[in-house]
Amino acid sequence: MVAEDRRLAVLRAIVEDYVATNEPVGSRALAERHGLGVSPATIRNDMAALEEEGLITAPHTSAGRVPTDRGYRLFVDKLSEVKPLSAPERAAIASFLDGAVDLDDVMTRTVRLLAQLTRQVALVQYPSLARSTVRHVELVTLTPSRVLLVLIADTGRVEQRVVELPRAAGDAFLARIRDQLGVRVTGVALPDVAAALEDLTAAFDPDERAVVATIAATLLETLVERHDERVVLAGAANLAAVPADFAGSFRPVLEALEEQMVLLRLLGEVSADLDADLPTVRIGRENELEGLGSTSVVSLAYGRGSRAMARLGVVGPTRMDYPGTMSSVRAVARYLGRMLADQ
Amino acid sequence: MVAEDRRLAVLRAIVEDYVATNEPVGSRALAERHGLGVSPATIRNDMAALEEEGLITAPHTSAGRVPTDRGYRLFVDKLSEVKPLSAPERAAIASFLDGAVDLDDVMTRTVRLLAQLTRQVALVQYPSLARSTVRHVELVTLTPSRVLLVLIADTGRVEQRVVELPRAAGDAFLARIRDQLGVRVTGVALPDVAAALEDLTAAFDPDERAVVATIAATLLETLVERHDERVVLAGAANLAAVPADFAGSFRPVLEALEEQMVLLRLLGEVSADLDADLPTVRIGRENELEGLGSTSVVSLAYGRGSRAMARLGVVGPTRMDYPGTMSSVRAVARYLGRMLADQ
DNA sequence: CGCTGGCACTCCGGGACCCCGAGTGCCAGT
DNA sequence: ACTGGCACTCGGGGTCCCGGAGTGCCAGCG
User: Fold this and answer.
1) Which of A305-319, B128-142, B300-314 has the lowest mean pLDDT?
2) Do A135 and B142 make contact, defined as CB atoms within 8 angstroms?
3) What is the value of pTM for the model shown?
4) Nearest alpha carbon to residue A178 among A157, A206, A148, A155
């Protein structure tokens, strides 16, 4: 089995060298730079075997080898360790995020930080409304028949919506609605709000119910909407770092990254718990999105305590420094979770 | 002066052809495609004169001519007319923007629309807080010594900030503060809020003043902050449409566009009034920003009635369709102004 | 049996070269 | 003032060629 081990060591060396140099790596360079203790000829045999298994491939007959998606996959799963961040990096995270004034600010800073740390495109999803509770509901009169409905979640997230009332409503009436809403939904988990509002209209006179129902409906709409799942992005310029990474132009990549839907799918489903300590890695074709066949996504959930709230991650070329990226993603996710817990 | 007129016609033809084909334009093609009624040789003389004046330039001894920044400038100022939009385009604007649920939604839709219409990078600045009035101020208790301060402007813009109080404050006390704030600032223009709060602390007992002062300070901070001038962006993928437009890589351009400060400077100062009906055009080096030497910016203020609230515009290669872009920018600015007036 | 050195082979990339076409500037003629 | 003609320039593309890097295979060795 010694031979088998060496083969894997060769794969690991190929991945590391290729990531570092961006050039197909040959047997001689490999034998020299890594202390494998065998001759290039032996390595060539190993490489032939690895190629047979579909883990590496040669761009041309007479070039070095390059890892395939499957090769990276094996590397990530079995051959790499997530290195802890350096002290300066930790310090950078702290100094970057401290001093944020509101949730928008936290999100913006986080995504920039992540882009800077990893030198890739960073994504951060807003804390999911579905996993929050209501902190406060407010109604603000705009005109007699229009009110602004403001919903504040415990994550600090604020949603607002203008409501057109079926008829004019006086301040006293609105105050009663506000009170009733407050009593019923404050502290309630957002998915449970619908149930909590079930009997809301019953608390009002029949001729008042149309107005109340309109407001309640808008509130529920606000909770349900896909709008919910906002994702912010930073570091698009990093795509241009090594143009060769994206065959032809990277226009399709840029285009894909402008679609919120795509970003959400890249980050993946938010799991219930925060148990997973290691980022999820999707490599190349593994994420089946148009135009993103030569990119990888490293993502992780963040949250308060053990409850996941949303995800964050980075998108980069399949030829990326997985261990480094994974550790940055993990560190930022942890720090962000801690920040939000403070609030 | 007929000769002079023809020279300008030649310049205009060069700009139009170059924009259409992205290739240096020669004297023969010019004589054929545009009904100038003179021979290529004559046009060559004109071109020599235009080159002498610094309006066009030849990439190589034996290539056609290309407009310089100054050439585009003359074209924009004197030789082009802003064409009205086509009916389908107008329809697209309306259908794209209608149905927006809140201010964020309006901004997002607008910027996407503009990017799509112009096929360039679009920028839209949020309605300036400095030009709004206060619609409502709200205080929400988080913990006894922390409150969330929410400010709603008449543009629909919502700002929130967590305030750490110097000591715990009861609900009744906070309600009094809220009332006092409401009385003093509701309907007040944001720049005048500081004055309106001048005597706020006087309305409270001496031992309450520290808390009140903290809240007032945070409110003022919220108004002043640069955060104020948010700009959203869309259509970055359009930069990649004609890679040759940005010599080498367009990394620097992407980088510049990630800086809020840069975006603000690109859009320019918001003037007091909405008098200017034509977009401002800054061509190439005219905007003195690092990395944006080969881009042009077409921008315009938008607002309610005659009051400017902020600006929007697009960034693209100097080689752009100025008349078309200008008309799109103008149309979107008008429509957006009308939408906000409705609110 | 696994490893090694040697060897013939392949193929990419870059440089040298050349030609063609497009476009110019200038000049003499109308 | 405009035009046709002409000599000139230059870049892009095509072809050719070579060197270097890397491979696969084979025979030999411990």
Assistant:
1) B128-142
2) yes
3) 0.87
4) A148
